[in-house]
Structure prediction request, 160 residues.
Amino acid sequence: MKYFIQTKSNLFLRIIIFFLILIWCLGFLSPIFFKELNYLVITYPFSKRIYSIVCHQITSKTFIINGERLLVCARCSGIYIGALFSSLISLFYSSKIIKNINLFLYSIILLTLDVFFSSAGIYHYSKLLAFLTGIFFGSVSFLYILNAIEINLLKESNGN
Prediction:
């Protein structure tokens, strides 16, 4: 198997991606962190609208923390937290070139089965299960996306 050498350009790219994902996560978590600040009242409709582009925001499927509802559902929260976790880990470990898509397919299948079974009424929707399948999918998806970015954007700087 071929491994990327952790170069300055790879590390710099990974740091940028990590901070972008961190900012995104802080955005949907902002009602918790900035509960007492008045400026949130002004930015809340704008933030809610931005996150509505990527999430249905059904209130019954959204976590409530410290009395505040997150701006995305439990599954989307899991996807973004999973991507954040994988991006953090990627700063310290050089990932191999991923050619096998099986792990990605497993994560999609688990997520899809959870959606199907809860929508079909086979079992009641579980925020925790949605969050966990989201974490798995988000973590794995991030690794594949990072792999594609590094192969396509940094291959010349790595001498490949």
In short: Residues 113 and 119 are 10 Å apart (CA to CA). Residues 1-5 have pLDDT under 50 and may be disordered. The beta strands are 64-65, 68-69. The chain is about 65% helix and 0% strand.
